[in-house]
Design goal:
Elements lengths: L1 E6 L4 E6 L14 E9 L8 E3 L12 E16 L20 E7 L8 E5 L2 E5 L6 E5 L1 E2 L4 E5 L4 E5 L69 E3 L2 E3 L2 H4 L55 H4 L43 E3 L2 E3 L2 H4 L55 H4 L27
Antiparallel strand pairs: 1-2, 1-10, 3-5, 4-5, 5-6, 6-9, 7-8, 11-12, 13-14, 15-16
């Protein structure tokens, strides 16, 4: 398989051919080396041209229009006798000698007399014809001019020196202009720049000047975002959504940073400055555009008190002390020494007892002091008096008498009883003066 680049009077063609003999069983026929075999070809070049054939092929034809691209490529073949159907024999003559590129043409309808014309198959008379093809010599390289010769005249057509390997109409010496990448037919000055990492329009920049479509997410800070071309692909991400975008909402700013339709949601605020007492674990609250707010009762919780007031064994005002400085309510008993007593907070509960009622309080009245020590409304009531010092004679069993504020009184006749005599005078078998002698002085 050989590949040649050919230039002709109308355009460039890249043709891959197997230059082989065309074996035909023709026993005894002589070999002919000047025949041409025509192959249908494809060519992406699209030249527009007008030529005057001037009897070049089939008569005196003026202003024939060469169609867009070459249709056939004709190469020399050898026709030889081959009785055994052996493989075809390659053409071994001078390369490209007599080769032709054939173009479809459209010519005006005219009536002409029979003419003698010459082509690759010889010289003959043509009486009736309708022009179909224009065949011009094919040469390797870039000739400035090609010539077609007939028996009657010569026609010359100037050909642009065009090298267009990718058949997109652009290349070195091509009428459309040069190509920045002659190996890719989708890259040329007429192409539209797309996002693919290639300079499609040969403007000198890759993926330049492109305007992306809106990103799919147009919620929150993503609103108005457009795709940008990067590394040959359209991108929508943090760079396109802008500096306020966050994949997971983290900023307290009154914006929908993660573009999910919710503002400042799911945020964990920074810790409040005061983390003492009931304020421990408190965090700041997001104030939207105002940012994180200074901490106060709402942040510190339901047990917080600006001034400690609750008896609950908690540091409600977050100053490091629990239940300090509290003023209790009056105790239930306000009689006697309990008058004016107030509750005190202890272990998280209000207490009223001996400590609150004062040093003179007695759960059971025992003191002789003119006080209502047990706060029952009675002063020195129900006391158990101490025994008198003298417990001899009729003084036995005597007890002291409470004198109120004077306390327990010294014992005397009132305490010793009716039989007591300071000096024994009665003869009654009693020790009336409590001196351990009975009826002393009696006759």
């Amino acid at each position: 398989m050989k590949q040649f680049i050919y230039r002709s009077a109308a355009l460039s063609v890249i043709v891959s051919l197997s230059l082989a003999a065309y074996a035909v069983e023709a026993q005894g026929a002589p070999a002919v080396a000047d025949h041409l075999k025509c192959y249908k070809i494809k060519d992406a070049q699209k030249y527009e041209a007008n030529v005057n054939l001037l009897s070049a092929q089939l008569g005196d034809e003026l202003d024939c229009d060469v169609k867009v691209k070459a249709k056939y490529y004709c190469v020399p073949v050898i026709k030889e006798v081959n009785s055994t159907n052996a493989p075809v024999i390659p053409f071994v003559g001078e390369e490209h000698l007599g080769d032709r590129l054939c173009y479809k043409v459209s010519c005006p309808k005219v009536s002409l007399p029979a003419l003698e014309v010459s082509d690759q198959f010889g010289t003959r008379m043509i009486e009736k014809f309708k022009p179909k093809l224009l065949c011009t010599p094919a040469t390797e390289g870039v000739p400035p001019t090609t010539t077609t010769t007939s028996t009657t005249s010569t026609t010359s057509t100037t050909v642009p020196a065009c090298v267009d390997l990718d058949e997109d109409g652009y290349g070195d010496g091509c009428l459309a202009g040069p190509d920045c990448n002659d190996g890719n037919k989708f890259v040329n000055p007429a192409a539209t720049e797309v996002c693919d990492g290639i300079d499609n329009d040969c403007a000198g920049g890759v993926d330049n000047g492109l305007v992306g479509a809106p990103c799919t997410n147009q919620t929150g800070v993503c609103s108005g975002s457009t795709q940008t071309c990067s590394a040959g692909a359209w991108q929508c991400g943090a760079a396109q959504y802008g500096p306020n975008y966050e994949a997971t909402e983290a900023t307290c700013d009154g914006l929908d940073n993660d573009c999910d339709g919710a503002t400042d949601e799911g945020l964990t605020g920074p810790a409040c400055v005061n983390q003492i007492g009931v304020c421990g674990g408190s965090t700041q609250t997001c104030g939207g555009a105002g940012g994180w707010q200074a901490c106060g009762p709402a942040e510190y919780g339901g047990n917080y008190e600006a001034v400690e007031a609750s008896c609950d064994d908690l540091d409600n005002d977050c100053d490091g002390q629990a239940d300090e400085g509290l003023t209790g309510a009056p105790c239930p008993m306000q009689t006697g020494v309990c008058s004016g007593s107030t509750q005190t907070c202890s272990a998280g509960a209000w207490q009223c007892g001996a400590a609150e009622y004062g040093p003179n309080y007695e759960a059971t009245e025992t003191s002789c002091d003119a006080e209502d020590n047990d706060c029952d409304g009675n002063t020195d009531a129900g006391l158990t008096a101490p025994a008198c010092v003298n417990q001899i004679g009729v003084c036995a069993g005597s007890t002291q008498t409470c004198g109120g504020a004077g306390g327990w009184q010294a014992c005397g006749p009132a305490e010793y009883g009716p039989n007591y005599e300071a000096s024994e005078v009665s003869c009654d078998a009693e020790d009336n003066d409590c001196d351990s002698v009975v009826d002393e002085g009696c006759p």
